[in-house]
Write a structure and sequence with these properties.
The longest helix has 37 residues. This protein has a single domain, classed as Orthogonal Bundle (MetI-like fold). The two termini are 32 Å apart. The protein has 292 residues and is mainly α. The chain is built from 13 helices and no strands.
Length: 292
């Protein structure tokens, strides 16, 4: 076995140092937010510099967040939107991707042109709102699910993955009497689990972090998803701090740590899902990217 040369060793060391630095730059904001959320508000306000440990220890910010009765309701609404939305997303995206990946589909190129067009141009916010309201979805959680049922980029990604599956499998299944639905659900999808995992992650994160559409379409506060509830808490905390003087009052000091606590509450659940999908992520995102 050949020993690495000096240049190869230098490259390995430089590469390792660069990746370590990149990892620190990526991880430090999460560390900072975590430590700041459990720090003493007064000490945090007076602190300047890099935060490597909590400044004291206080859970007042988390207590303030979870004292809001809307938190559990917001979690319930968000889980409904995420789970129901994922079912619609995967079903409709896979149906569209399968149809567009079939070489026998007439006007396939023209259809793809119209679909890609929507990635760069839209009708605007007001026509979008009027359309959703016109079909009776306004002030319902379905307004957060159905209009976002298919993402164009995800559709193209899944279509590319389906095209990478050998045509011989489809041909042999048709010889055995299988129709398109059988081929899709019993052959194509089981062989496309990496890209399915990527779709679950992309769509799931999108639903979890979504708040703008909820702000537009929902008037009933009992339907607010978690992100909108946390936004409301944060704005109320900032408003109370401004009203009573943030530099000298407990309410004002609490608002400093409140924003970090809301970030942790909103982020941790989706972060816990990512490790289970990580092993599929790179393979699924790049599948079909290189063709022979």
């Amino acid at each position: 076995m050949n020993r690495p040369t000096i240049s190869e060793r230098c490259f390995d060391v430089t590469n390792a140092l660069f990746l370590a630095l990149l990892m620190m730059v990526t991880i430090y904001p999460i560390i900072y937010i975590t430590f700041a959320s459990v720090s003493d508000a007064a000490r945090l306000m007076a602190f300047n510099g890099i935060l490597w440990r909590p400044l004291g220890f206080s859970l007042d910010a988390y207590a303030s967040v979870f004292e809001n009765p809307m938190i559990l309701k917001g979690y319930g609404n968000t889980f409904f939107v995420v789970l129901t939305g994922l079912a619609f997303n995967i079903l409709l995206t896979s149906l569209g991707a399968y149809a567009l990946s079939r070489k026998s589909l007439k006007y396939r190129k023209q259809l793809m042109l119209f679909i890609v067009f929507t990635m760069f141009f839209s009708g605007g916010l007001i026509p979008f709102y009027l359309t959703v309201k016109g079909v009776g979805l306004a002030n319902t959680l379905w307004a957060l699910i159905i209009p976002q049922a298919i993402n164009t980029f995800n559709l193209i990604l899944m279509k590319t993955a389906f095209e990478a599956i050998p045509d011989a499998l489809e041909e042999s299944a048709k010889m055995d009497g299988a129709n398109d639905f059988v081929i899709l659900f019993r052959i194509i999808l089981p062989l496309s689990m990496p890209v399915i995992a990527v779709m679950l992650l992309y769509y799931g994160v999108s639903h979890w972090n979504s708040w703008f559409h909820a702000l537009i379409f929902l008037q009933d506060r009992s339907m607010y998803p978690l992100q909108l509830v946390l936004r409301e808490i944060l704005l109320q905390g900032e408003a109370s701090a401004m009203a009573v003087g943030a530099s000298v009052t407990d309410a004002g000091m609490l608002s400093v740590t409140l924003k970090y606590a809301t970030i942790i509450v909103a982020t941790v659940p989706i972060l816990l899902v990512y490790p289970f999908l990580q092993k599929y992520f790179v393979k699924g995102a790049l599948i079909g990217a290189i063709k022979g």
